[in-house]
Amino acid sequence: MPATRKTAETSSSLSTAQQPPPKPPASRARQRAAKPSKAATVSPAIAEERRRIVEVLKPVVEMMGRMLGPNTELVLHDLTQPDASVVAIANGHVSGRKVGSTILSGPKDDRAFGAAWSATTDLSGSGHSVVNVYPTLTGTGTPLKSATVIYRDADGTPFAALCMNADLTVFKLAHAWLEHAIQGAPAPAAAPESREESPDMDLLMGEIIRSAIRTFGKPVQLMNKEEKVHAVEEMLRRGLFIVKGSVGRAAAALDMSRFSIYNYLDEIRKREGFTK
Description:
Strand order of the largest sheet: 2-1-5-4-3
Number of domains: 2
CATH topology of the largest domain: Beta-Lactamase
Radius of gyration: 26 Å
Number of helices: 9
Largest sheet: 5 strands, antiparallel
Strand content: 5-15%
Order of helices and strands: HHHEEHEEEHHHHH
Distance between the termini: 68 Å
């Protein structure tokens, strides 16, 4: 064999041997995190569709608020701007919110948060989602009865939510007074009027994270996977992961990676079957 041919083959073999091994495929969570969301690039037609629907719903909020009375709050959220999601509200004294309040300033234990998060991570749905009547609590512990509709655009992306929160305290008092009148039972004491205040978004995020971790009464370094999954689930139920940057904050607080948080969220969604 000629020397030049041997030299070329040797060089080729060395070059092939020095090449780094192929990288393993990225995890599904990593791929999902790296891939730009569908909502990040909105066409002018979709943006106009969203604007029109929100403008149509605003007077509906005012009308329903007047019809249902001062004990029922109606709230219209723009899910694309969680820092100031409330774009219309009637009877906001029920939860202490106003136009411009954050999405995290609403009632506690709101099941609609899970549905909204699931909708934002799965764009395959085409219709609007209804989260039927479920119990929630105000910041001061007043029980409410709530319901939510999550609206999607033509691309299937959720962009707005119309929520109803009814304070049944007055009706319960009226029922107790009727029992007193009919049966002679002790008359109930009038419930003190409460005025909620809507705290800052950053403070709310920190409170939600700390509260979820405090449940176990131990440093995060000593928490096992099951406990961390439970903490993430509590954060999800309180609406944390609708807010931009929340995954990073939760990961830092739990001393774990963002991709682990995404995997936990997928695990919770499959187990709980959040409405899409």
